[in-house]
TrEMBL record:
Name used for this protein in its record: Uncharacterized protein
Region (Disordered): 761-784
UniProt superkingdom: Bacteria
């Protein structure tokens, strides 16, 4: 059987290898051994998973003093327990190391559980598919030496041999750890001289080379662990990919080559990382975003640069969802003036020429046209945008006129509240269609209460003018899939909708507290093509089939949450709504107490008594870790580091007394964000309740935790919060090491104040005024 090293598939894990030091009374007490894990790279003779691990204790001192141990990952097996592997010539100190390994397992119960989890990660990375074997059993008690008689043989020929692989390291592990430890002294100096710009570009090109064949296929490339770590470690990765875009962009009429396509794909990835940093308030993110915009303004949005790369860069910015600053808007306007577009004496003629070009290309979908127009509109001041929309409202092509109605969902409220006036004027000239009328009625419920009056007036005016909304052709909702809710509160929904001759796959991105973030739709001619797309998504994201009732509940709640930030759903949601015939979606504020009460009666009987909830919540303090839904649940913003530097000290002290560090984070980070974590547990429980078939994860425990958090139960007394807390501590610790952080770069005057446990008070819900009756679609019946 062939075994492969875990760090071969996950190179960055070399920085977190477990280290074991033998007992002081042994002859090797002064040596440190790294624990390397090797997992089966193939299935057993009968197709079984071979759920076992080969552990190598490696000294890294070039003496070849290493020992191999076999361990089953199923604790119920009769041969359970580590034992010396008979296929290897183990060192003279093998029995000492066996005792040291057993002591490590018995001192840290998470060691064995971590091996089980990493087996699944290894299988997923090896096969490209999520590991779906039976759940691993848990182990408690004292681990003892296993039986070597039933150990399967290891392939000991060729370079796959684990001993050969270890020999090839040649002391590199210690060198890497020395680099990491250089960043752990009091002043956190760099681990070496900064790498020059040209060297980093060459290194990046080498890392990208294996992905070039993949980018030419339909599937997006699978970014390697090394390349992903490069992007994480280099905050200016977006600038590097931007430079590669300039180097590889197609000239004249040439088609973009694979180097350009891959650079663009990775530029988009780097922008999403940058946006994540902005959302987490990391200290480097805002200055880097300014630098990216200045670079685009100075080197991309200039006349001598090809329009191909200019359009791609602006599209990448639009896809990232980051709002451009003045420097970018000004550069775009100057470039537009250079091209005499939307400005100057001939602006109307220029615009007509662009619209005519679109007509010649056969664009007949207003939603596609909106996607094309929005990036350019966002770079124009509101007054200019309204002038353009006024021109479009009277344009001869009815498809292009539909754009104006969809702009009632413009991201800028300064624009969208004035669009109804443009439509009212266009209606006098007979330029508003029944389709636009239908959409306006639906959109009305997607706007904040204070912004509905102008649209209400337009709808009344259209009704008085004798216009009736055109009914939509309703498609069939076949299935709904929903991803888990990650640590940032984001969740993806996938709707499979059967239309007459094709299938629509609608993808919705929701984010707690911010609303409906994005919607995009794809079309497929066959079920086979659809399945291929869903399989590709499943390889990247964990999602489950859910009851359609979850769609209505979570979507309407997120529409309402967006109003708190003056945000409305994107226009893509209108396409989904009218495809399904859903004119009744609206904003629906969902109070936590009401939701808990709604699902309380569906809990298993033994969990329905609220008085028992504190006990039931902690019956198994590791239940969240066992659920597998916790991996992205941690607080990872700049405030965490600020608090730890101010209250604990240098990063090397953060993990010395976990109880003290935990108490500091509870008081300054988790308690101030109690409502955020209540919502995370609450909506995860509701999501799991709607999953079909029922998952193994206990949905009711998530709901119980939400209720306890809402009621003021101390967060420090909840084992599940402890799991999130540990991940938060380690995330902050390793980021501080990677970034060579020091107190000098932190501002301690903005540290969140300590907060004591207290119930969450929900504001009384205001009764929402129903829409006027004459806004609802109806069929007029003449009196006889």
């Amino acid at each position: 059987m062939i075994f492969k090293a875990f760090v071969e598939l996950f190179p960055s894990e070399v920085f977190s290898l477990r280290r074991i030091t033998p007992a002081k009374d042994t002859p090797i007490a002064d040596k440190t051994y790294f624990v390397f894990e090797f997992y089966p790279a193939q299935t057993g003779p009968g197709g079984g998973d071979m759920r076992r691990v080969l552990l190598a204790l490696y000294s890294d001192d070039l003496t070849n003093d290493w020992t191999f141990f076999h361990l089953s990952l199923d604790p119920g097996r009769p041969d359970f327990g580590p034992c010396l592997h008979p296929d290897f010539v183990n060192g003279a100190n093998s029995m000492i190391l066996l005792k040291a390994l057993l002591d490590e397992f018995n001192a840290d119960p998470h060691f064995y559980a971590g091996l089980q989890e990493r087996f699944g990660l290894f299988r997923r990375e090896l096969t490209g598919k999520k590991y779906r074997g039976k759940p691993f059993g848990s182990f408690s008690g004292v681990m003892k030496e296993g039986n070597p008689l039933r150990v399967p043989p290891v392939d000991t020929f060729g370079p796959e041999h684990p001993a050969w692989w270890l020999q090839s390291l040649e002391g590199k592990v210690a060198a890497l750890h020395e680099m990491m430890e250089q960043g752990e002294d009091a002043s956190f100096p760099g681990a070496g001289e900064p790498v020059d710009h040209e060297t980093r570009l060459k290194e990046l090109s080498v890392l990208m080379e294996p992905l070039l064949p993949e980018i030419q296929t339909r599937r997006p490339p699978r970014i390697s662990q090394v390349l992903e770590r490069f992007i994480d470690m280099h905050h200016d990765a977006a600038l590097l990919f931007l430079e590669l875009l300039q180097m590889h962009y197609p000239h004249k009429e040439e088609e973009p080559g694979p180097e350009y396509q891959l650079s663009y794909y990775l530029f988009c990835e780097a922008l999403h990382k940058l946006k994540y940093g902005l959302e987490r308030n990391w200290r480097w993110a805002a200055p880097m975003w300014e630098q990216v915009q200045e670079t685009i303004a100075d080197k991309i949005l200039v006349p001598h640069m090809g329009q191909f790369v200019q359009q791609d860069v602006m599209e990448a910015l639009r896809e990232s969802g980051m709002e451009p600053d003045f420097v970018l808007i000004e550069a775009a306007q100057e470039l537009a003036e250079y091209y005499n577009r939307f400005s100057g004496r001939d602006s109307i003629e220029e615009m007509e020429a662009i619209l005519e070009d679109m007509e010649r290309q056969g664009f007949d979908d207003p939603f596609v046209l909106v996607e094309l127009f929005l990036p350019q509109l966002r770079l124009i001041p509101p007054e200019g945008q309204l002038q353009i929309l006024s021109f479009l409202a009277g344009y001869r092509n009815p498809v292009i006129r539909e754009i104006v109605g969809l702009m009632c969902l413009h991201h800028d409220s300064e624009v969208r509240v004035l669009v109804p006036d443009i439509l009212t004027q266009a209606a006098h000239d007979g330029m508003v269609s029944p389709v636009t009328f239908r959409r306006l009625i639906t959109m009305r419920n997607w706007l904040p209460e204070e912004q509905r009056s102008p649209l209400d007036a337009t709808i009344k005016s259209l009704r008085r003018g004798g216009l009736s909304p055109e009914p939509s052709e309703k498609g069939q909702l076949v299935s709904v899939y929903a991803s888990l809710i990650d640590g940032s509160g984001s969740q993806g929904l996938w709707l499979v909708i059967q239309q007459k001759d094709q299938v629509m796959l609608a993808n919705l991105l929701l984010k707690q507290g911010l609303g409906v973030q994005d919607v995009w739709c794809s079309y497929f001619d066959s079920q086979a093509d659809l399945k291929q797309e869903l399989d590709m998504v499943k390889n990247q994201i964990i999602y489950y089939k859910v009851d359609p009732g979850y769609l209505d509940l979570v979507l309407q709640a997120h529409i309402a949450e967006g109003f708190e930030h003056d945000a409305v759903p994107p226009t893509g949601l209108m396409l989904v709504a009218e495809t399904l015939g859903h004119t009744d979606w609206g904003a629906q504020v969902q109070e936590a107490g009401e939701l808990i009460e709604m699902f309380h009666e569906h809990m298993p009987k033994t969990y329905r008594n609220p008085k028992r909830w504190p006990t039931l919540a902690n019956q198994n303090r590791e239940w969240l870790m066992r659920s597998g839904l916790h991996e992205t649940w941690f607080d990872d913003d700049e405030a965490v580091e600020n608090v730890l530097f101010a209250k604990i000290g240098e990063p090397q002290t953060w993990l010395q007394d976990l109880d003290v560090t935990a108490e500091v984070l509870i008081q300054h980070i988790f308690e101030p964000r109690r409502r955020q974590w209540m919502n995370r547990f609450l909506w995860t429980g509701i999501w799991l309740y709607h999953v079909r078939p029922k998952p193994r994860a206990p949905w009711h425990l998530f709901l119980i935790h939400a209720a306890l958090i809402r009621g003021g139960f101390p967060l420090s007394d909840l084992g599940a919060v402890g799991t999130v807390l540990i991940q938060t501590m380690y995330s902050a610790y390793y980021r501080a090491l990677n970034e060579n952080a020091s107190p000098a770069v932190h501002t301690f005057d903005s540290i969140p104040a300590a907060v004591d446990p207290a119930p969450l008070i929900e504001e009384p819900k205001e009764e929402e005024e129903p829409p006027p009756s004459n806004l609802i679609p109806f069929t007029r019946v003449r009196n006889k």
